[in-house]
TrEMBL record, chain B:
Keyword Oxidoreductase attributed: yes
Source domain of life: Bacteria
UniProt key word Oxidoreductase: yes
InterPro entries, per the entry: BFD-like_2Fe2S-bd_dom_sf, FAD/NAD-bd_sf, FAD/NAD-binding_dom, Metab_Enz_Cyan_OpOx_G3PDH, Opine_Oxase_asu/HCN_bsu
Name the UniProt record assigns to this protein: FAD/NAD(P)-binding domain-containing protein
GO molecular function terms listed in the Swiss-Prot or TrEMBL record: oxidoreductase activity
Amino acid sequence: MIRLILDGEALVLPEGTSVAAALAASGDDHARSDLAGRPRAPFCGMGICQECRVCIDGRRRLACVTLIREGMKVERTR
Amino acid sequence: MNERLPRECELLIVGAGPAGMAAACAAADHGISVVVIDDNPAPGGQIWRGGPRVNLPPRARALRERFERLPGLRLCSATRVIDAPTPRRLLVEREHDAGVIDYHRLLLCTGARERLLPFPGWTLPGVTGAGGLQALIKGGLTVRGERIAIAGSGPLLLACAATVRAQRGRLVALAEQAPWSELASFTMELWRWPAKLAQAIALASPRYRAASRLIEALGERRLEAVVIESLGERREIACDRLACGFGLVANTELAQLLGCALGERGISVDQHQATSVAGVYAAGECTGPGGSELALIEGRIAGLAAADQYPLAAALSRRRARWQAFAAQLEQHFALDSSRLPPRRATTLVCRCEEVTLGELETHSDWRRAKLASRCGMGACQGRVCAAATAQLFGWPPPPPRPPLSPARIDSLLLGGMKEVQE
Ligand SMILES: Cc1cc2nc3c(=O)[nH]c(=O)nc-3n(C[C@H](O)[C@H](O)[C@H](O)COP(=O)(O)OP(=O)(O)OC[C@H]3O[C@@H](n4cnc5c(N)ncnc54)[C@H](O)[C@@H]3O)c2cc1C
Ligand code: FES
């Protein structure tokens, strides 16, 4: 099992889980907010649409093609 | 962390899906050293991606094991090709670094993506692509007990429904736009591909409705229901997720950047899977969607051709023709009928990144004008989703891609540019 920090909250999930699945496991699958502040969530699941972009350890990454790592810090983006 | 990126190779393959893996195996059998680049965290492509909820079929596992143990193979996962700065060189980026790789021969196995068409409510969380939901579930998303609607067109809807059932999700709708007559004649043809017939039977679902039209997704901050029209009757169906997709489109951006000619359905290739650019080959769904069997056989042919094993490659051409015929059946029977595509509403967003509506786009005559006036396609996805949609909606030819192929860091881009300056 792997422990990551999502928006300051700890989350423990099986190895091999994608960050996109981790977002959903937190109970709220949104990844970013659009121009009007409405939530957007992973859409294509394959690295094409960029809807799932989040901040991972300080870098902008795609949640759907990134696997969780021990101690990883994930923040939703605006 | 990762070992260093390779600097050069004989054969560079982009894409570790069925086509790329089969090609690498075929080329390595003839002593060619191979580097494979793929942006997913593990090899397998769209169909055989690994993950905590994945039980790969034995055939896929065998190929993946063989692939990963190839002598002379250097596999760079979670690595994305972002540019082709000079001939015989690609610029790639990973989470923590970037680099250029020089190649003697290049094989593009970049696969396909879903055709995702706009409809009211498609930006609500809970709405995903059908293949997208497949991918998310394989990545560990739990759908147990959730009510799931699936709508659009093509066999991927059935594959998605089967995964949902296997994960104990509750399938509340499975709406296909093609009419029963097409589905029936497609099934009638399947005896020619017995494995596909068996698969069709295994995937069959009592929820399957033909000639159905996805109307809209409803919800405030998250999906709450979907409206689907079947046999002239509109029904609102409460659901937690909607998975939608309208067939596949080939990923041709890198090929276009390299100057490869395109055909009607993807990258144009000859009998050896060679593109119009010397030394560049292409195989799998980037040459036209057709399923994993066709991708595998095309990959083998391309790998053999790249290793100059032309007689061995030629011996496989009949098998390729058999699966090309299957691809043609798919295309024919699941052709999109515009009267059964989601209704056009002026307020529907088409460009999800820059939030441009259908109404704003409709006033323009082509993609270029629309883009200049509205910023459509200029956001993070660089038109990957909306250009395929406007091609379907307005018949606008998709725009030629520009580097970087996906958003990249400045330091990576400088690396591509600086190498040029140095020489
Ligand atoms: C989202 C999705 C889900 C699917 N799920 C299923 C399924 O569950 N069952 C089924 O039967 N069929 C599925 N399909 C159909 C499937 O695409 C094919 O059957 C098969 O995977 C095609 O093999 P391929 O090798 O041609 O391409 P793919 O398997 O698509 O492999 C292409 C690979 O290239 C990589 N790539 C592309 N561009 C770049 C780049 N610039 N840099 C680095 N890497 C790159 C991609 O990430 C991918 O890993 C799915 C298709 C999609 C789009
Ligand atoms: S969900 Fe589309 S890029 Fe991640």
